[in-house]
Write a structure and sequence with these properties.
The structure is a single chain. With about 500 residues, the protein is an alpha+beta fold. Among the domains are: about 170 residues, no CATH class; about 80 residues, no CATH class. The chain is built from 17 helices and 13 strands. Helix 7 crosses helix 9 and helix 8 packs antiparallel against helix 9. The structure holds adenosine monophosphate and magnesium ion. Adenosine monophosphate binds next to loops.
Length: about 500
């Protein structure tokens, strides 16, 4: 007997009951000697899982893909996507959906193993993942969650005891990813391209049931689905911009229907404010630069709208008009979310027409003086601008006066303004040099203390405590730009 029941796995497999062309069943690809590196206790508990049982040999075998827990039904999901603008067939080439965990509260979450071995969709890849990038996803996704940004979560990272071949041999690992679902824009693209209209309807109805139950009985639920996805993505990308998060690979297969951030590959947080910031080594054109993210999200949503055309109206011309109408509303929605967030970052409660211009001017000054994005807002929050390059410049002095005057034109007290700012402007973000330092200690020296300390600090980004002080510091100046890598 196993401990599966004690562990609390409580699977349903609704996706595996969808048409067979949506996925392939997948046997496990056992790894040599699984070793649990990190486990997210709070997340485990919220999923109804027993933290002690998860750490037993059997518990870890599940997280390594060596043992299928009772009720699990491992599948690899099919999807397509536009990668850097080019349409292609993709699918889970190195991931396995174990099943959908039904929590004690009755919520449903996909439990997916990433790095679990080859599947039907692996093409030339080995289906594996390296320890560094899986720990990186763990750190950044958990930091995003703590920042209040919708995201897939990370339950655990298990080392496989096997080496994988990249530029050099690296320790292999498997990340357990937890998601509202793994339905992507690319999932719709796959079914729209190679499935029947009936299958498309089944997928759309499934997505609605899973994420947008409130629209299920509405008049044109497929139009509502499009609008709701637009709403969530407009809100999501605005949140990214507000904290300086750069996703790095906003291909349509990396955009969820649920509105969660997914696929932490070459992502990174911006230090110095610059809309042209790009970290990903393969993004040579800057397609996914910080300042482009809102537009790319719009482009991806247009691809999503295209997939829905047969469901929007029987007449194709009318369907196109309906879709275009919905898509044309995206930018305004994004702007509204972003400006609302920016007002909060500046302690502003009410609305004035000139607010956008005030915000824009601050960005212009940050750009001119190469100021750190996070620390500028933190400096404003604590009225401690001395450490920033804006301090004492004529532009900033003038802007500061305008801002103070603006704060005077609302009923809320100065103290409420500062509180709003403290709760909106993080003290700590996963700064690249800190993340690298933690990964190096974990991967090269087997020392997990650095990563655990970092995770602890990142779990309370708005605490503004003295222990966080050192995590606010910028990296030492370097001649080499920070670079991140994809699919590693
Ligand atoms: P990503 O860059 O993680 O969004 O992945 C893009 C596509 O490449 C997806 O279909 C992945 O499943 C696939 N892929 C990435 N890495 C591997 C790998 N090591 N082996 C097989 N497929 C992979
Ligand atoms: Mg992907």
């Amino acid at each position: 007997m196993t401990n599966q029941n004690q562990t609390g796995w409580n699977f349903d497999n609704s996706y595996a009951r969808l048409p067979k062309s949506f996925f392939t069943s997948q046997n496990q690809n056992p790894v040599r000697s699984p070793n649990l590196i990190i486990l997210n206790g709070l997340l485990a508990k919220s999923l109804g899982l027993n933290v002690e049982e998860l750490q037993t040999v059997e518990g870890v075998e599940v997280l390594a893909g060596n043992r299928i827990p009772k009720g699990g039904c491992p599948i690899a999901q099919a999807y397509a996507g536009h990668q850097f603008g080019h349409f292609t067939m993709l699918g889970d080439g190195r991931a396995l959906l174990l099943g959908e965990q039904i929590t004690p509260q009755g919520d449903r979450y996909d439990i997916q193993l990433k790095g679990s071995g080859r599947t039907h969709y692996s093409r030339g890849g080995d289906g594996r993942a390296a320890l560094g990038p899986m720990l990186r996803e763990y750190i950044v996704s958990e930091a995003m969650d703590a920042l209040g940004i919708p995201t897939t979560r990370s339950l655990a990272v298990v080392e496989t005891g096997e080496k994988i071949a990249r530029e050099t041999y690296l320790p292999g690992a498997i990340l357990t990813r937890v998601a509202a679902s793994h339905i992507r824009v690319g999932t719709f693209q796959y079914v729209a391209k190679w499935g029947t209209v009936e299958e498309l309807r089944i997928l759309a109805d499934y997505a609605i049931k899973r994420h947008y139950q409130e629209i299920e009985n509405g008049e044109n639920r497929y139009l509502s689905l499009l609008q709701e996805v637009i709403n969530r993505q407009a809100a999501l990308v605005a949140k990214w911009q507000l904290v300086g998060f750069i996703h790095g690979v906003m291909n349509t297969d990396n955009m969820t229907i649920s509105g969660e951030t997914i696929d932490y590959g070459p992502c990174a947080f911006m230090d110095t404010y610059d809309p042209e910031t790009v970290f990903s080594s393969i993004d040579v054109q800057g397609r996914y630069a910080y300042g482009n993210q809102p537009y790319i999200a719009g482009w991806n949503l247009a691809r999503f709208a295209e997939t829905l055309l047969p469901l929007l109206h029987d007449d194709e011309k009318e369907a196109v008009e309906i879709a275009q109408d919905a898509i044309s509303g995206y930018m305004n929605k994004y702007q509204k979310n972003w400006l609302e967030g920016m007002r909060a970052k500046l302690g502003i409660f009410n609305e004035e027409k000139e607010d956008a211009a005030l915000v824009e001017e601050l960005h212009n000054i940050m750009l001119k003086y190469r100021a750190d994005y996070t620390n500028t807002f933190r400096g404003l929050t604590f009225d401690k601008m001395e450490d920033t390059p804006l301090y004492g410049t004529p532009e900033f002095t003038k802007w500061h006066e305008l801002w103070q005057a603006r704060l005077g034109r609302q009923d809320e007290s100065k103290e409420s303004s500062l509180e709003l700012m403290r709760n909106t402007n993080p003290a700590v973000i996963p700064r690249n040099h800190r993340v690298e330092e933690a990964l190096e200690a974990a991967v090269n020296e087997g020392d997990l203390s650095v990563i655990k300390k970092l995770l602890n600090v990142l779990s309370k980004p708005f605490e503004h405590s003295p222990e966080q002080e050192e995590y606010c510091k910028l990296p030492a100046p370097s001649n080499l730009p920070y670079r991140t890598f994809c699919g590693t």
